[in-house]
Amino acid sequence: MQLYAGSSKQFIEDAFRGVIANKLSDAFFRAFRYTPPKSEVQSWQNSLRSMSWVLEKADLTDHGVVLEHQLPLTSKRLDCMVVGRDGQRQDQAVIVELKQWSDAGPSEAERCVTTFVGGRLRDVLHPSVQVGQYAQYMEDYRDVFTRGDVGLAACAYLHNLQFDPGDELYDERHAAYLERYPVFAGDQADELVSYLGGRLSEGMGEDVLQRVLASPFHPSKKLLAHTAKMVEGQTTFVLLDEQLVVFERVLAEARKAVTRPGKTVVLVQGGPGTGKSVVALHLVGRLAKEGFNAQHATGSKSFTGNVRSLVGDRAGNQFKYFNQYGFAAPDSVDVLVMDEAHRIRKTSATRFTRKEQQTGLPQIEELVLASKVSVFFIDDLQIVRPNEVGGSDLIRETAARLNADVIEFELDAQFRCGGSDGYVNWVDNTLQVRRTANVLWEGDDAFDFGIVDDVRELEAWVREKNAAGNTARLTAGFCWPWSKPESDGTLVADVQVGDWQMPWNAKSDAGRLAKGIPKAEVWATHPNGIDQVGCIYTAQGFEFDYVGVIFGTDLKWDAASGAWVADKKASFDTVVKRSKEQFLDLVKNTYRVLLTRGMKGCRVYFMDEATRDFVRSRMDVG
């Protein structure tokens, strides 16, 4: 989808007459059924006027122009793409990222700069990096670029900026990207004219434009091979027993799905530490290696963001979110592997989504419809928010409604908590999540569990384990506010127990962060994550060698009733607090998740003494 496509001559005329922004605005309304923000319309007016002047000066008047071209399965749009032929009459396209920045400063984040956006100073991608990612995406997903039928180049034009070689934008650390995807300042319009003219000198662009717009969209073999290589580099665990059975059966279903009609739904159930995520990643890597369009999806920004950081930007395009498949073409994905399927929501729409942008379908239907084979990895007892509806019964019902074959598996071997099924069962029984035979924790040489009486002791234990070369993190129930960073990018020490305090991990929309503070999506793996407390939304889906848990007062043991009680007044999770009937279960599930993040050990500090005493009464460790 694009908001404007036509000849460069018409584009120049529309910009000269001052109607180009109105045309984009009208097209935006037709596409999304609501009016674009005034700021965006003003941006179009200013940037496209400057771009049209460049095309006119370069005498690029026999070319094709595409504006606001949306990259499939993303919400991102290319600002401008000009197409034509070069001096050898080879078809060419140039992506131009347009920015109104007047300055940019240094950032502690790799490949980023800082600039004032959205009311405050933020870390943003360097323009060369951003436009380079767009070019790579087009090369990986559009046939004409994948095959090399149309050459592709990219650059950025910052028309309000004056060139200064000492500016952060031109710093040596960005040299590799600048060389491949140059940035032109406003007073370098002549250089931009030469850059475009050298690639599009022969015109005849309208025919090229039609070929580009008609080109099919799907992942290239090179991308799939790259994805396989990158994923294989991250999946070092060996699959055992039923893990390998699930892996091989999904592969078999994928191979069959290519040659026969109909859909297949694979439901894989498993508790904490049964290896669901490991199997899911192995599947994506192997399927990509065999040339299948295999994609991975979750409902967790932290989990998907962390995986993307591990496999890199290019392979990361195959790792998406549940809410990105609403307008995907039916069966456009060969195999969709969904980890943490319990986080599927009722719909992909949020309170900010306009009615015209909604499909009207449940999110789970969008996912099954988009794929030939859909694989759901799920733990029905890990739902921690009221708007999460993913469950085994829902998956079965949806499969039946869509006439899909259903294959079910269960993973029960314990690969976390020292391989101790007894520990996980004891946690479930103690929290009254489900009855098990493990009423007492009698200890296990393979898993180190204990209760501490001082939160400082808990922090010291976590830091000691981390310093010894283990992965260790401190986590807590959502019993404190979660503040935005200070103006200097430092974090507020929100988590307070007496005179002890520590900040939560950064919010996902934190903006610019001070040096050394990891972004939310990499808190679980960044070395400096040890200096923040993780909440359920950044810890869920990850595992550490050792985990410390601050058990807050939002969940207490009531001796009189012999049951757990939840206190909304002690919770700062506004979404969960809105739940009436589910609140207790959601809070219990939250602590169940936190208590089962460790592979080798766990320590807990209870803020409520009666709760601590009750849990200790369920321990018989001498």
Q: Would you write up a description of this structure?
A:
The structure is a single chain. The protein has 622 residues and is of the alpha/beta class. It has 3 domains: 2-214, no CATH class; 221-411, 3-Layer(aba) Sandwich (Rossmann fold); 417-617, 3-Layer(aba) Sandwich (Rossmann fold), CATH 3.40.50. 35% of the residues lie in helices and 22% in strands. The chain is built from 21 helices and 24 strands. The strands form 6 sheets. The protein has a 6-stranded mixed β-sheet, with helices on both faces. Helix 1 packs across helix 3, helix 9 packs antiparallel against helix 11 (276-289) and helix 10 runs parallel beside helix 11. 47% of the residues are buried. The model has no long low-confidence stretch (mean pLDDT 88).
Write the layout of secondary structure elements.
Layout: E1 2-7, H1 8-16, H2 20-32, H3 38-57, E2 64-70, E3 77-85, E4 91-99, E5 105-106, E6 112-117, E7 120-125, H4 127-141, H5 143-146, E8 151-158, H6 175-180, E9 183-185, H7 189-200, H8 205-214, H9 221-232, H10 242-257, E10 264-270, H11 276-289, E11 294-298, H12 301-311, H13 313-316, E12 319-321, E13 333-338, H14 363-370, E14 371-378, H15 392-401, E15 405-411, H16 421-430, E16 448-452, H17 455-467, E17 472-476, E18 495-497, E19 500-502, E20 533-534, H18 536-539, E21 544-551, E22 555-558, E23 563-566, H19 574-577, H20 583-595, E24 598-606, H21 609-617
Parallel strand pairs: 4-8, 8-9, 10-14, 10-15, 11-12, 11-13, 13-14, 16-24, 17-20, 17-21, 21-24
Antiparallel strand pairs: 1-2, 2-3, 3-4, 5-6, 6-7, 18-19, 22-23
Helix pairs in contact: 1-3, 2-3, 9-11, 10-11
